[in-house]
Specification:
Pfam families: DUF6431 (PF20020). This is DUF6431 domain-containing protein. This protein starts with a strand and ends in a 13-residue tail after the last helix. The protein folds into 2 domains: about 70 residues, no CATH class; about 80 residues, no CATH class. Helix 2 crosses helix 3. Strands 1-4-3-2 form a 4-stranded mixed beta sheet, covered by helices on one side. About 20% of the residues are buried. It has 6 helices and 4 strands, in the order E-H-E-E-E-H-H-H-H-H. About 35% of the residues lie in helices and about 20% in strands.
Length: about 180
Amino acid sequence: MILFHDFGADLKTYAEKGPANDFPTFHSCPACSSINTLHRHGFYWRYGITEEGAEYIPICRLRCPSCKKTFSILPDFLIPYYQHTLHTVVDRIATVLQKEKGSGFRQLVAFYKRRFLKHLKWLHSFFTDHGVSVSFPCENKNATKYLTMIRDFGESTFLRRSKGHLSSYFMAPPV
């Protein structure tokens, strides 16, 4: 299970601290709700990619002593299973929707755009559930408005709060 955490750092700072980052401690299990401190269960390493470059960063793993389930503490600037940071993905989608020339691989940017457009109804539902008045229909031509709403909400805040909405997360593969 993925647990998002705001480390108060960008990718570069997080990478510089490495395993010495201030990882949170959990005193109850998110899966079984037992009152136990989750134990450190090592790290796995993954890439975080921005426009400036790539960083190889540690992701802390925790394990519940009761149910034996493992958890990963993912920095809130990363999207699960994506190498590019949340900000990079949102910027590239915005660039392609505004029909500007952007950077990055054409196929990857097209993939991000397709995945984003498939999630418009999910985004509409998320913002409606959070009390945001969405006065425009959920159509592809309004996709840039949803990107603006994500940026206004705060990209990292949006990612943390949207986890689990309709049993999914932002940019997850469609079910």
